[in-house]
Each structure stands twice: as C-alpha cells, then as structure tokens.
Amino acid sequence: MIKFDSDKPDSQLLTVGCFHDIIVYMCTSYGQLVECRGGRLAAAVDLPFRDAVSVVELESATRSKVFIVESRTNSVAVVDVSKRQVMHCRVRCDVLYTVLGSDLT
Fold it and tell me: Which of 37, 61, 86, 88 could serve as 78's disulfide partner, Cβ 3.0–4.6 Å?
C-alpha cells in the first residue's frame, strides 16, 4: 500500500518501506518465470523456452497462480507458479484454445 502525505515535499511523498507487499512476476533470459515478493525471490519455475515475451495471469477459482507465457517463437506455456510446474506447452499460439479447453468459454 502506498501512502501519501500532502504536507510533505514531492521527494518525501512515498512512505519508507511501502513496497514490502508488492508481488512481481517476470521472465528471465535463463528460461524461468520468477515470483518476487517485497523484492525477494519467492519462487521460480523453469520454462521450456528462453525467449519469453509476454506473461498473462489467468483468473482461477482456486488459490493457484496460473500464467500463460508466450515466447518470441510463438510457443506457449501454461504455468502454475503455486505448484512450480509447467502444466502445458504448445508450439503455436493458435492452439491456445486446445491447451485450455472449455475453461475459456
């Protein structure tokens, strides 16, 4: 949570330590999807490719954190960060519906 105090100059608007609750997901050039919590590594999942260009979080009815990761070469991986595993991987993006099945409808 970011707190603002309008009585302080612009350089002091952000409360010190306000980033401890931030969770960030990113892909590395080493072929991993990593989760960072408060600036510290919390989880890492090895991807089947090293050229990820996009990460999209899927909504889940469970507490699982599921992401679709797309590569520059049009491969797609469905990753469950909670279980630290790649659930599905396909060579082309146009088969994404096949990967997820009826969950998209």
Answer: 88
